[in-house]
Design brief:
alpha/beta; Rossmann fold; 2 domains; six-stranded parallel beta sheet; 16% strand; globular; binds D-glutamic acid
């Protein structure tokens, strides 16, 4: 079973892609909504959450961990790999490489949380591409809150999103990397607000491909006739997650409440 987590609902953008591509894999998704947003938390707090969540997912039978959160990956993946050396772990990072390879203007925008952009992992990644393109970093101010409240198309959402896009437009970027798993849920709005020549890059596909590779490599892939089971748990407002899943993903699954302190 694949165990995955995010600070909240954002990782469902990865879950959606995962179950489309690997329909036989069972998945347990944990939304750490009681502690969302991670983007405003310290590295030590995020590491502590990642540890307690990983312990829980392992106790539930997870054999592969998918960190469906750029912020948690940036803060905690090294720590988790050292603490659980046998566990295959897939993390998220902003997809700068494909954007740099495709840019015509030589300027690429990255939208992510403040914590991701400030982390050493991101700075090292961006540094690798500095010779090839200008990387324009921009926090998606208020984006996570919009997604968590299911507000994906209101006037308030348009105004909030427009403010963070303005510096990217002024810089003349032709690609915008979605460096937070919440942001793909705002993609229709972003598409509407950005000129047509600007491409959006969502790394979910690449992450799901990496998950498939690791499952095969560790002989953990479900048999082709397996019926997948899906479970959803939240450390916060289960009703809000259920409504989001119904409205945005068209799913009626129950969401279990899990007060996971630590
Ligand atoms: N979905 C998350 C990410 O990919 C984190 C959002 C947050 O909690 O700030 O970065």
């Amino acid at each position: 079973m694949i165990g995955m987590f995010d600070s909240g609902l954002g990782g469902l953008s990865v879950w959606r892609q995962l179950v489309r591509t690997l329909p036989h894999e069972s998945v347990l998704y944990l939304a750490d909504q009681g502690y969302c947003p991670y983007g405003e938390r310290s590295q030590a707090q995020i590491i502590a959450r990642a540890e307690v969540i990983t312990d829980y997912l392992l106790a539930q039978g997870a054999t592969l961990l998918l960190i469906a959160c750029n912020t948690a990956t940036s803060a905690a993946v090294r720590h988790l790999r050292a603490r659980y050396p046998q566990l295959p772990i897939v993390g998220m990072e902003p997809a700068i490489k494909p954007a740099v390879q495709a840019t015509q203007s030589g300027r690429v925008g990255v939208l992510a949380t403040r914590a991701t952009l400030a982390g050493s992992k991101f700075r090292e990644l961006a540094e690798q591409f500095r010779q090839q393109a200008q990387i324009v970093c921009q926090p998606g101010e208020g984006f996570v809150e919009l997604v968590e409240s299911g507000e994906l198309a209101s006037q308030q959402a348009r105004d909030t999103v427009s403010q963070s896009l303005a510096p990217l437009l002024a810089a003349g970027v032709d690609h915008v990397v979605l460096g937070c798993t919440h942001y793909p849920f705002l993609a229709p709005l972003l598409r509407d607000l950005l000129p047509a020549h600007i491409d959006l890059i969502d790394p979910s596909d690449a992450v799901v491909r990496q998950t498939a590779r690791l499952l095969t490599q560790h002989q953990l892939a479900a048999p082709a006739d397996a019926a997948a089971a899906y479970r959803f748990v939240s450390t916060g407002d289960t009703g809000c997650m259920q409504t989001f899943m119904r409205q945005i993903l068209g799913r009626d699954d129950a969401v279990e409440y899990l007060p996971l302190a630590g």
